[in-house]
Task: inverse folding
């Protein structure tokens, strides 16, 4: 039987909680990176038709910016490098994606409409990372605490 002091158990639970932050990072980062790259690479999956179908302004400017935000946010979240920045980028991108799901009547892309739950779940996972940080298994953790005393 393990004899744990009253201080050991909470400390161990904190370490486990920090490791578990990998889960929301992957839940948010993987779809962002994959879908962002799909908008760049795959034929018939461009961002501009989606932006136009949603009735958003300046589609020529907004489309490449949105794709760049998806790719950068996804990469930052997956690596856990400046993960809070990645999460902050992901939240407005997913808000616009959720709006597009509601606004678009006929999905213009080849693969059809992904489920509305996708941007909602990605936004929730990004909100966790924004609030809690990247966790133990991240580049942020390797860099050490932020200069203002917060953990990365």
Result:
């Amino acid at each position: 039987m393990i004899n744990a002091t009253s201080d050991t158990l909470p400390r161990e639970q904190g370490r486990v909680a920090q490791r578990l932050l990998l889960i929301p990072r992957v839940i948010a980062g993987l779809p962002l990176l994959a879908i962002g790259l799909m908008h760049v690479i795959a034929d018939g999956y461009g961002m501009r038709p989606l932006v136009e179908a949603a009735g958003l302004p300046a589609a020529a400017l907004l489309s490449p910016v949105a794709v760049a935000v998806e790719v950068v946010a996804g990469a930052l979240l997956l690596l856990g490098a400046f993960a809070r920045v990645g999460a902050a980028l992901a939240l407005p991108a997913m808000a616009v994606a959720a709006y597009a799901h509601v606004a678009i009547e006929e999905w213009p892309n080849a693969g059809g409409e992904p489920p509305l739950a996708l941007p909602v779940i990605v936004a929730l996972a990004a909100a966790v990372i924004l609030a809690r940080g990247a966790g133990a298994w991240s580049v942020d953790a390797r860099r050490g605490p932020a200069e203002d005393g917060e953990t990365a």
